[in-house]
Task: structure prediction
Amino acid sequence: MNEIPVVAHKCKNCGKIHYPFHDRCMNCKAREFEATKLEGNAKLLTFTQIFNLPWGFDQRFLIIGVAEFENGVKAMGQIAADSIDGLSLGMKMKALWKPVRVQAGEKVYGLMFEPIQ
Amino acid sequence: MGLDMELEAVLRAPEVYQAPYPSKVITLANGKKMVVREVSREDVPMLLEGVRPTLMIDRDYYDIVGARLYAELLGWYRYRVRNEYCIIGQIDGILVGIVNGRMMNADIGISLHTLAIDRGLRVGAHLFAAKMEHHIEYLGQKEVWITAESPIGFRRWMIEYGLEKQTDVQHELGGATSYRLSRELYFASKPRLVVGDRPVPKEYLDVAMQEIIVADEETITEKISGVTGR
Amino acid sequence: MRDVAIIGAGMIPFGRRDEDGLMDMLAYSSLNALDDAGLGDKSVDAVYVASMGAGILQHQTAVASALVDRLSLLPAAAEMIENGPASGGSAVKMGLLAVASGYYDTVLVVGGEKMRDVTGWRATDFVATLTHPLAEYIYGVTLPGMAGMFTRLYMEKYGVTREHLVQVAIKNQKMGALNPYAHVEMIITQEGIMDSPHSVVNNPPVADPLRLYDACPVSDGAAAVVLCPLDMVKNAKKPPILIAGFGQATDTHTLQEREDPTDLKAVTLAAKQALEMAKLKPSDIHVAELHDAFTILEIAESEHVGFFKKGEGGKAVAEGKTQLGGTIPINVSGGLKARGHPVGATGVAQVVETVWQLRHEVGKERQVKGAKTGLTVNFGGFGNNVVAFALKRVNQ
Result:
């Protein structure tokens, strides 16, 4: 598995985890953060199957969801599945770093969640 | 001047038997019933009345679709196109959409055009699906070739059906990219794209068969390019 | 601070307006509002123009400067407001503050959007640019997608059902069919979009669990109002409508950082501020325009502004409480669902509709009888910037 370069930001003062980046802590307004990697598997918090995709996507649909990692980081990503039939709230997902779209002819990488059977 | 039937016989495209498309009825979003049925050559003059107003509507490429459909229907009426068929949608007898296609040979079907006169009710989607149903299930063909002349068509057919792009052949409608619907793809998409009840209850079929009612030019133009409608 | 009244309201029918550019629509709706205010040949002190997409969709900037020139309102002050789908509400608020402060006396606020210049793919991408560029946008998420994820959680937590959503769609399209300004004039039935097996094609999923008829259309349109100090309104032919309260609040950019993603905090706060300032309770409101870009939002907002307890909004729709003649008629204009959602126009259009309702001008088929108070909620982003207004009819 490729190393996932997503970095979350843990407030050095109060410990609140932020993702994406904020210049001041949402909780205590402190400005120093410790870079935090995504840890372990993730729990699926919500998901949807989107049709009518924006410009730049040629496929019929995308499945997208938000998941929470074991260290509390919450992040959006695409979900690798043929349909949403097998997905349920709270299920365990494995996170991968995969191409999620193509921009200007180049692959753009991002989070890809895979259901753990 | 009478037809020179000897010369006419030379010019006419040969026809081979085509299985008929059995009529069906679909409940639309507004609760109205749309009868979807195959029409015969003799119905063409009436259909042309419904297509004619679209020749001047450039919104959403109605003019190019309308002009080509007009020519195809006329070609069929005058025996210049081989193995063409035409399926229409009617609500309370009124013509709301037309689709046509032909058999290129026993295995390959050609999807020609899809014209929705009533908009916002997915009439085009239902009729295009009926066309695919006809090729695969009733004409028993192995595949259908499709191309799109408008972004709406592209989105609907290529993306909704997940069609395969063909680089080695040209579609009859010109050099635009041709896509292929295989039997496998059709049956995979069928549950979410092809609906309708058979047989059509007599009350609906009788109204549809009695007369193809074509709205006047102003109404058709307003339906297609008025301010309202999605 | 001075009390501020709306003395003119104007709109043009929303829909696909192939003949008109953005500038045309802004100009026509402005003229309608100026005429309505009796200022057809007068100037104004300042103009606030809302558009989310002029720069992206029309490749045109500084639209406010262009508009005052076109309307011969020079040398009026002119400003452009881009605040996502809450641009319209924000522009009304800016105009309100300018008049309330005593700095300007007559202000024109206009909002418009020309979205049908581009294909659906481009329009979807344009609206999605309001999401977080790195944490959301790159994944291909769309606004319907955000709403889909929200709906899944809201249904799970509060028991909102597909039938409740369908009831909102049917109600709003029915009202839209009666509103000459509405984009969608088609009455739909539960059979056609839910009960019949044919509904899988009629009403396909757009962002599960949301379906086609849960979403507003992509529209062109514009709306405008004219504001002035209440105490300067003399011998008005039409009853002036007081902007009795306003509120605005923000929430996290990404949905994932909200402690409870089903809690639309900015809606609660904005509505609370507006109502408190107007000295009104939710139960005092006679007519409401809520931001139903998706059916679920009408239900969720009706709870968050305090019309119903959490979890009771869906039931209220099913019981007819939110329809014309109900305890709190919501979106009798058809809402975004049927009137359409030209993003920059929407916040202004909600105010225009409410002004007409409070003046009792919409015609008996849509009029909330004797309406004297109204609430509007303009929901930007996915609830990350919300503007609300409480309006009151002033009897002179």
Remarks:
- Residues 343-359 of chain C form the longest helix (17 residues).
- The radius of gyration of chain C is 19 Å.
- DSSP finds 14 helices and eleven strands in chain C.
- The CA atoms of residues 119 and 243 of chain C lie 37 Å apart.
